[in-house]
Design a protein that fits this description.
The chain is 36% helix and 20% strand. The chain is α/β, with parallel strands linked by helices. A seven-stranded parallel beta sheet has the order 3-2-1-5-7-9-13, with helices on both faces. Helix 1 (12-22) packs across helix 6, helix 3 (76-83) runs parallel beside helix 4 (121-143) and helix 5 crosses helix 10. It starts with a strand and ends with a helix.
Length: 303
């Protein structure tokens, strides 16, 4: 089975590439060359995805699936499908659960309408472009001869995540630094372990059940900051040192707030469709954070 991965070397893409290699897929990868995956038997091509001529220079191939981890702007999928030599059986876009209308107090399913509000900042731009890309993918697939699948993960955590989310707190724990405890945080949020997302994507590849379908990938546990602190302490196996701060004090101190803080930010996502149709199960937060802590432990001990 032939697989084309676009991106695929950072965090989720890296974990997915390793799993796909172990599953026996023949993998071609296109990225900018920041990190090599050749040790996993991947055939790599390094160029900017916006270069149409570079896509046309690739060898002809019949791809059972294309998995696109780094489409961020409208038109980027079109560049691929109109210039890639060969055929595409299925195009899988890695999108986000943030594409939905923001409604507090209800579970958002794959049928929830896309947001009609254009929010400001980088996050707002990211969401708006993912919505445009999802629509672009469906339009291209329906006018062409390939199937589409949209994967919409929630907040991903796990090994290789060097974004200032759980890894920052793990670093503080490993180095015995005081950990900010946000005293006025009352939002609920959901996480999803990176390997669960990677397995969901792999299960969708060349799977006719996943054709013309979207999947939320988000664990059902509803957590608060206090839950996260308790899970982190359990993963460390030690009594951690915390310093109480309000959200405003944390912002003034440039402390990242990686999860929703206030109740009005709470959004619940229903991720059971992927369990039913793709056969995945979600790793409990305690288990996933323990694995993540162990993965980062030697990294932060060495600093």
């Amino acid at each position: 089975m032939q697989l084309l991965i676009i991106g695929g070397t950072y965090f989720l893409g890296r974990v997915f590439t390793m799993l796909a290699s172990q599953a026996g897929w023949s993998i071609t990868m296109v990225n900018r060359g920041s990190y090599s995956m050749k040790s996993f038997g991947v055939q790599e091509f390094h160029f900017d995805r916006h270069e149409a001529a570079a896509w046309r220079s690739l060898p002809w191939q019949e791809y059972d699936a294309v998995v696109d981890f780094c489409a961020y702007e409208e038109g980027e999928i079109r560049t691929v499908v109109t210039n890639l030599p060969g055929t595409i059986g299925q195009y899988i876009l890695i999108s986000t659960c943030d594409v939905y209308e923001r409604k507090t107090g209800i579970f958002q399913t794959e049928e929830t309408p896309f947001s009609s509000v254009r929010y400001g900042g980088e996050a707002g731009q990211y969401i708006a472009q993912k919505i445009l890309l999802e629509r672009e993918l469906v339009s291209l697939a329906e006018s062409g001869s390939f199937a589409w699948t949209s994967i919409r993960p929630g907040m991903i955590y796990g090994p290789y995540n060097y974004a200032p989310r759980e890894s920052l707190y793990i670093q503080m724990a490993v180095q015995h630094l005081p950990i900010p405890r946000i005293t006025d945080a009352n939002a609920q949020f959901q996480l999803v372990y990176v390997a669960d997302v990677a397995r969901g994507i792999l299960s969708a590849c060349a799977n006719q059940k996943a054709f013309r379908q979207a999947y939320n990938l988000c664990a059902p546990e509803l957590l608060r900051y206090d839950d996260f602190y308790a899970i982190l302490e359990q993963a460390s196996g030690e009594t951690l040192s915390f310093v109480d701060q309000t959200a405003e004090e944390a912002i003034q101190s440039a402390v990242p707030l990686p999860f929703p803080v206030f109740d009005w930010e709470t959004r619940w996502v229903e991720g059971s469709k992927a369990c039913r149709e793709l056969g995945i199960t979600y790793t409990a937060a305690e288990e996933g954070m323990a694995k993540t802590y162990r993965a980062f432990l030697p990294v932060y001990r060495a600093i």
